Amino acid sequence: MKKTLVIASSLALAVSLGACKKQAEAPAPTPSATMMSGNMANMPMASTMQHGMAVGTVTAIDAAKGTITLEHGPMSGLGWPGMTMGFTAKPDMLKGIAKGDRVSFEIDWDGKAGSVTSIRRAQ
Ligand SMILES: [Cu+2]
């Protein structure tokens, strides 16, 4: 009887831990345009711009065109799960970065496309 109780409560614990993790991965609230002030609020791009940070691996890169594809882990700031996706970047920013490199990077996301604002090789 006592043993059954212990098993039941550890099961309940496992379930609640699972729920907790799921909640932590849920997308963060979107900053609204009202959080911005002055001229920024009048710019459609700026009003929806969000910032994200992640670590990932370069799966494709074209420094001349300023494009990079990253297989990234969870994106903090945007609440994204890990995925593979393409971004734009200033060509200068991609100098010294190669396919297969592990990088930590930050992006601005306008709701449709992401542009890299900083990227560096991770150890
Ligand atoms: Cu992504």
Describe what this molecule looks like in 3D.
- This protein is an alpha+beta fold and 123 residues long.
- It has a domain at 49-121: OB fold (Dihydrolipoamide Acetyltransferase, E2P).
- The protein is built from two helices and five strands.
- It has helices at residues 2-25, 44-48, and strands at 50-62, 67-72, 83-88, 102-109, 114-121.
- The protein has a five-stranded antiparallel sheet with strand order 3-2-1-4-5, with no helix packed on it.
- Mean pLDDT is 78; it is low at 10-26 and 31-38.
- The structure holds copper (II) ion (CU).
- The site of copper (II) ion has 4 residues, from strand 3.
**How many strand segments?**
5
- What share of the residues lie within helices? 10-25%
The low-confidence parts are 10-26, 31-38
Sum up the overall morphology in one term: globular
**Looking at this structure, what is the CATH superfamily of the domain at 49-121?**
Copper binding periplasmic protein CusF
What is the highest CATH level, the class of the domain at 49-121?
Mainly Beta
Strand content: 25-35%
Helical region count? 2
On the 0 to 100 scale, the average pLDDT is 78
Subunit arrangement of the protein: single chain
What key phrases describe this protein's structure?
123 residues, alpha+beta, OB fold (Dihydrolipoamide Acetyltransferase, E2P), 5-stranded antiparallel beta sheet, 2 helices, 5 strands, 24% helix, globular, binds copper (II) ion
